[in-house]
Amino acid sequence: MKAKITLLAAAIALLVLAGWLAILQWHQEPTPSSRSAGLAAPATRPERPADERLANPSTTAAKPPETLATSRWQLLLDDQRPWQDRLALADLIRGTLPPEDVAMLYAALDHIPAPGTEEAWWVVLNEIMERMRKHGVGAAQYTTRLGTIIADPARPEVVRDYAAQHLMQWISPADPARYPGESNPQLVAQALQQITDVIRNPTLGHSTISGTALLAFTDASTRLPKTITEPYWAILDSYFATLWSNADSSSPAGVPLQSAALQAAARSGRSRHLPTIQKLATTPTTEPSLRLSAIAALGLYGGVESYAALAALSQQADRFSFAAKSALIRINQQRADHSN
Fold it and tell me: Please, which residues have CB within 8 angstroms of residue 300's CB and are 6 or more apart in sequence?
């Protein structure tokens, strides 16, 4: 008899436990998918579903209804939540989202992180921009919204850097069959003009923004028709001449942008700049780091003139000879690849 009572009590306990597990499973929101193994589970439970909050009029009368998805995106802005969890959540940004969700994601780009959490937020912000770009979320606004961020002097440099890179990839997707992009020619032209203005903005010459924008534009130019990009390259050609005019100064101010311009000109094959770049590479008074960039640029240009200048530099007994030898190796490799 005692054994029967014990078995009955155990069965009842199992039924109660199963009921609680079912309730917990019903209330639990889906866990964000992870792009890599070993990603930690969310440190805190998501807020309760919207339908539970709406069941209590006293808590919802003062604010508009909120969808479950929109409430989930709010977790992206939780600066105390591990950035890995927020990246996993950002990975769910795809497909056709309701207008209120799109509005929420664009509003998230304006988030000001708590002190001490800025770097973690910038990682999450970059992921939001990337997911929206790759999946065409909020496509009608993407060019304008990111353009606004790039032009905003109140934004941190790193945020404007990210916006410049994503905007240029948006107007020139690497794989149009896989990724969406800007389909409005007027908005493409608007983005190119805006990025050109940022590159030439004199107040940004000592920041990372102009150089990042220039290299992003250079990369986009490899995928856009030349008829579209050439007018903007013509503007930059004149700007480069002015930019390098004080390259013999001992001051390092502006050198990152000058170096980016050397790389951009060489990668794009702007042959009109080759004599200037050769001069920068071979003049001893050129700022040292800029001179190294000029030597590397000659390796990108290739050609007989570049090879001769690099060969002469490689014979010198200084640190520039190593850079010249590396550039020569690059040219020789290019020639070998072409011959095959």
Answer: 263, 266, 267, 330
**Contact 200/152 with Cβ under 8 angstroms?**
no
User: Within its chain, how far is the Cα of 141 from the centroid?
Assistant: 17
Task: Answer whether 82's CB lies under 8 Å from 40's CB.
Answer: yes
| DSSP per position, 150-177 | HH-TTS-HHHHHHHHHHHHHHHS-S-TT
The Cβ of residue 220 has, within 10 Å, a number of other Cβ atoms equal to 24
- pLDDT of res. 253: 53
pLDDT, position 206: 83
Q: What is the pLDDT of residues 240-263, one digit of tens each?
A: 988 998 765 544 558 899 999 999
pLDDT of residue 31: 34
What pLDDT score does 99 carry?
Answer: 93
Query: What residue type is assigned to position 198 of the chain?
Result: V
What is the tens place of the pLDDT at every residue in 285-337?
Answer: 999 999 999 999 999 998 888 899 999 999 988 889 999 999 999 898 888 77
Give dist(CA 76, CA 3) in Å, integer.
54
Q: What is 271-303 written as a DSSP string?
A: GGGHHHHHHHHH-TTS-HHHHHHHHHHHHHH-H
CB atoms within 10 A of CB 284: 10
Decide if 137 contacts 105 (C-beta within 8 A).
yes
> DSSP labels for 81-128?
S-HHHHHHHHTT--S---HHHHHHHHHHTT--PPTT-HHHHHHHHHHH
Distance CA 41, CA 24 (A): 16
How far, in Å, CA of 217 to CA of 224, rounded? 10
- pLDDT at site 69: 56
Distance CA 280, CA 286 (A): 6
In three-state secondary structure terms, 231 is helix
List the helix and strand counts (H, then E) for the chain: 17, 0
